[in-house]
Structure formats: C-alpha cells, structure tokens
Amino acid sequence: MAIAVANCCFSVLSSTVKFGYSVSCHRHLATSTSHASLNALSPKATNNKKRAPKKSSSTSPRKFNAGKDSVSQKKLPGRSEDEKSSLYADVTSGRGDIGRLHSTGFKSFGTQRKDKEFQLDSREQKVEPGILQDATFLNAVVKVYCTHTAPDYSLPWQKQRQFASTGSAFMIGDGKLLTNAHCVEHDTQVKVKRRGDDTKYVAKVLARGVDCDIALLSVESEEFWKGAKPLCLGHLPRLQDAVTVVGYPLGGDTISVTKGVVSRIEVTSYAHGSSDLLGIQIDAAINPGNSGGPAFNEQGECIGVAFQVYRSEEAENIGYVIPTTVVSHFLNDYERNGKYTGFPCLGVLLQKLENPALRACLQVQSNEGVLVRRVEPTSDANNVLKQGDVIVSFDDVHVGSEGTVPFRSNERIAFRYLISQKFAGDVAELGIIRAGKFMKIQVVLNPRVHLVPYHIDGGQPSYLIIAGLVFTPLSEPLIEEECEDSIGLKLLAKARYSLARFKGEQIVILSQVLANEVNIGYEDMGNQQVVRTSI
Fold first, then answer.
1. Is residue 482 helix, strand or coil?
2. Is the distance from CB of 120 to CB of 236 less than 8 angstroms?
3. Backbone Cα Rg of the chain
4. HSE-up of residue 270 (Cα within 13 Å, Cβ side)
C-alpha cells in the first residue's frame, strides 16, 4: 500500500519527485578530475567524496564514458545499482569527488537592469554559422583550477586529503564570473586562466547556490580583465534550436566546442543540489571539464550553463544545461540580499487527481487540481493548508489534474516550475477546494528545512565527543561515506521520509566509539540514533 501511494505522489517539499527513483539511469555531472574519483552523493543524485580508507567503485564506460582516465562513481543512498546519479562536467582529482551538480548561465552583471534585477539581453550579435571558432565572445570562456579539501564526515574533526580539479567558467561583467557550484565545492584555492594566456589568476567565491549548482566568482586583478568582453545572455530557446557548448573538457588544454540541438525543456532533477528546476536537454557532447561552460545559440548569446549528463545503456547523447531563467534567479537573489538564499518551496506533498472517483469524493467538479497529501510542519503552508485540500490554481494559473501548468505555446510543465520563479519570502495566492467549497489563500514561500541535510552549511560537520563516544548529526554525506548497510534500515527510512517538526531539528547519532578504559563494553556500538526518553 505504501509503495502504491509513493508511486502516485509527487513532492513539492524539496522540489524533487519522490518516485523518480524508479528510473533506471545515470545522471552525471560534467566534471573533469585529475586522478581522482567522482562519486554520486545524495539519494537524489548528488556527488560526494569518499574517505581515503574506503574503496571506491570504478565507473564502467557504460556509466561514464566521458574520456576520463580514472573516475569512480559512488553508489547513491536509496538507489539501486542502475539508479546511480551524476558525474560533473568539471574535473575532480585526488581522493574523493566533488559532491554535487548543476549550473546555468544567465544575464551578466554588466548588462541592462530594471529595478536592480537582471534582465535578458535581446540584442543579437549576428554570428554567422561556421565561423563560431573565430567569434570574439569565446574569449569570455575561462578555465577554472580548483583545489578542494573536503571534510571527513565519519571522522568529523579532520578533513580528507586535498585534491585538484578543473572546470570552465565565463565572464558576466562587473569583475565577475559564473561557474558550477560543484566545480568549487570545498575549495581552498580557486584560480582561473583566460584563453590564449599562460597566467593563472586567483579567484574568490562570492556566492554558491547548491540547489541550482551555480557559483559566482570574482577576480580582483585588473590585468585579468584587460580587453575582456562579458557574454550577452539570451532567452529560453525553442525545441530544435541549434546550441553550441564551449569549455575546457578532458582531451586537451585548449578550448573545446561541440554542437547539437535543444531536445527538451522541462523541470529536471539537479543532481548536485537534489532539487528539481527548469533544465534544457541537448544532444551536444558534454564531457568532464565542461561544467560551468556556457552554451550559445546561433546569435552568439549565452542560453545556459552546461552541468550534467545522463548515462544509461538505453540512451546516449543526453546532456543538460541550466537555462538563463535559473541563472537570472540566482543573480537577482544575490543582488537583493547580498547573499544567496535559495529557491523556495511550497512545503507540501501532492498527489495527482486523474481518477474520476477520487475527484468525486473530494467534490471537485472539473478535471483539475492536485491533492494535498501532507504538509511540512516547518513551512508557512502548515498554517493555511490542510490534508485533503485540492490546489486548483497558483497565482491565478490553473493547475491540471496531472500536476502541470501551461508553459509557452502548446506546452505544459510541472507545477513546481511556478514555485521556482518565486524568491524566498514571496507570497503566493493559491486557489483551493476544501470540502467542496472554493476559496483563495495566501502562502509565504521559503526554502525547505531538511531534517537530514544534503549539504552541510559551512562545510565542516559538527560533533561532540564524550568519554570516547562520538556524536554527530545525520547527513546525506555521512550516509554516503558509511554506506547504507552500516546505517541500518530503520535509521535510513527515517532519514528518507521523516520531516522536520521545527527549524533546527536534527537526527543525532552515535557514529562510533573510540576505545578507552572508560567505555569498555561499548566498543562495538556505532551508527545508532540518540533519542530523548522521559524517566
């Protein structure tokens, strides 16, 4: 029964589809690593590094055939062997992998704004087909060199061995660059090099959007920016539009150009942030090292950022680009708040209303709306929505019974797309049917509070050691390092399906016992939840 319900529900809690695990696929972040292993992290398809003593599984050509010499892929928690997720389009090396993915290119800081928000540049650059390699805007694409030092989640008082990676980035004006968040994750040093130059310049990470896999960099050196021209960001492309991906993938040191067409535009799973946002699917080759590089249309406008690929025995030539709409949201968020706050969510678990009998039971007369199955306690929706409500509109946009809304001409897209267009703290007006009566309510949208986080704020996990007993909060990186078998089914189920009851709630576990005479008899305890009991 639980399985049946899971298969017919989709979650807006974290903008991820709960039943997405049933797809047999391998979604990879396009990251190029220099002698390191790339591994998938979260149950949603994020990547994380492995501890030095743990053996990493080698990636078969079937799962990752991007031309990397030594790349390994981690098993995703809660997924089968055929459901592993992504390798990044930039490089990771050393003992671990960069753990997450995504990124997109949008409007540059140096282009026109309206009310301090970034707008798409509609100017056409009239680039003739066939001479793209000579276009000056290719000089705005730079190579990123990053040194990473990831935390050791099993031994939280120390860090893993440092490793290096390379990726791509591009200039957006105002002394800033855009790249993928997974390219500069756990960075200790970031350097960039322009096309045709042999000097590397130190860059600083200004903002990192884990959920959208975008990072904003700055370079203070004036020498680096001499003669630089930032890219113009274009509008969302149409199906079958030509697209060119530019970056610095494996196979050489100079800039690389691959071409294809837009195959699909829909809400896509972002492996690095375990989130669902708008994505552009293309058939142009995206290889390790392409992460963070721009994708251009025929007019020479940047229409997105390459960030991940899909690997499967049944499919090929499937790459993903973060569209300019997502990049624009990231940049505007940073401009408004001085930092990145994240994409908001509604905080509910929804079910489709395709069944006529179910609609009749809920007194829904038309073939529209989605059923509220569960409301997250930490969301504002918990104050206004109830289990059994039917959401029929979002800001006066009608929601279909399949959970979709109109998108451009003759297209429909997942309801979550409308939520992702909002900013943290924005108010949305919902039209709902409750007990057969239509009403309108207002909900404040905020980023989801994860009971078990996919990423640790600040990078280093917290811990407490008492008498040799090591206590630490449960997190997805810890589950990945320890492996699901050692965590236990009960604790793993709680991590996957439980919701936070209040902000700041954590699942604290006794991860291990450091043997000492004071804890004799407890040495074998490990990965057990600490619960509060009343006496």
1. helix
2. no
3. 23
4. 35
Q: Which amino acid is at 281?
A: Q
DSSP-based three-state secondary structure for 522: coil
Q: What is the dihedral of CA 277, 280, 282, 284, to 10 degrees?
A: -90
Q: How far is CA 324 from CA 8, 294, 302, 332, in A?
A: 31, 10, 8, 12
Neighbours of 355 (CB within 10 A): 13
The tens digit of pLDDT for each residue in 418-455 reads: 999 999 999 999 999 999 999 999 999 999 888 888 88
Amino acid present at 439: M
Instruction: Classify residue 224 by its DSSP letter.
Output: T
CA nearest to 24, candidates 107, 72, 85, 73: 85
The answer for residues whose C-beta is within 8 angstroms of residue 378's C-beta and 6 or more apart is 347, 448, 449, 499, 500, 501, 502, 503
Eight-class DSSP state of 5: H
The residue to which tokens 């500069």 are assigned: 184
List, in order, residues 6 or more apart from 503 with CB less than 8 Å away: 378, 449
For the chain, how long is the longest CA-to-CA vector?
Answer: 78
Whether residue 466 contacts residue 514, with contact meaning beta carbons closer than 8 Å, is answered with: no
Q: What positions carry a catalytic annotation?
A: 182, 213, 291
Residue-wise pLDDT tens digits, 354-379 = 999 999 999 998 889 999 999 999 99
What letter would DSSP give residue 289? T
Contact between 182 and 223 under an 8 Å Cβ cutoff? The reply is no
* Separation between Cα atoms, residue 486 and residue 526, nearest integer Å: 9
**Digit-coded pLDDT (tens) for 456-488:** 877 788 999 999 999 999 988 888 888 767 787
- The letter for the amino acid at 192 is V
Which pTM was predicted? 0.75
CA distance 113 to 172: 13
Report the distance separating Cα 290 and Cα 245, nearest Å: 8
Contact by Cβ (8 Å): 385, 441 = yes
Count Cα neighbours of 487 within 13 Å in the Cβ-side half-sphere.
25
Residue matched to tokens 């979550």: 416
Taking the C-alpha atoms of residue 137 and residue 1, their distance in angstroms, rounded to an integer, is 56
Q: Which helix (H) or strand (E) holds 496?
A: helix 489-497
Distance CA(234)–CA(238), nearest Å, equals: 12
- Provide the edge-to-edge strand list for the sheet that holds 464-466: 464-466, 469-473, 508-513, 528-529
- Let me know: does 230 contact 206? Beta carbons within 8 Å: no
Report the alpha-carbon distance of residue 248 to residue 256 in Å, rounded: 6
